[in-house]
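Retro notes, structure queue

What went well: the backlog is down to a handful. What didn't: a couple of records were mislabeled last round, so from now on we paste the full input next to the output in the thread. Example, using NADH:ubiquinone oxidoreductase from Candidatus Marsarchaeota G2 archaeon ECH_B_SAG-M15:
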Amino acid sequence: MNWFLKGVRKGVRTEKTPSDVAPWSTELQFKGIEEESGVTSESLRCPTSAIGPGWIAERCVYCRRCYPHYQPTGNHRMGVVKRVEKRFQRSFYLYPIDVGTCGACNTELRLIASPQHDLTRFGIFFTNTPRHADALIVMGIMTKGMREAFRRAYEAMPEPKLVIALGACAISGGIFQTEKIEADVVIPGCPPSPYTILDALIRAKGGRGW
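Corresponding output:
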């Protein structure tokens, strides 16, 4: 509501680029004292072993059991882009596939198409068929019933193509520790914010990020 009212008053239609801040860091709390303090995934009852040594973003489900030893800094640049495809600089079409989610990642991904974030201003679009897609966005744990659907969607895509794992479940199996998805881009979070998603997508298509 605040964003809407601000837009009406000032003519602001989309979010500005988030301010750069330091990545999630625990050096001040942890460096040199981890062993003697005994703070580990086991002691904190971390359900995904996302602690030690350091914070493992790809496994974290944001349960907050590690607080206050680990605290977020607000950095949105958490995505890891393993392969950049510059042929997608002008237009980048995405086909989302839900292989077994709770719905949270779907909600955040849908938000990047809202007027507040507007993915199209970055040359990014959704498509209704993998035959027109440049990237496959995978969300959720890889359930048995979706393996064949995932394979068929991937094979239907033209070359070149990217696979993007969105959220802890797709990247590491989450709390279920199931099959991991081999991806060109991994976007950590449970769920990742629209800022994190857009930044990773922009870098994957050859941009400098958001």
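Agreed that this is the format going forward. Reviewer comment attached to the example: The two ends are 23 Å apart (CA to CA).
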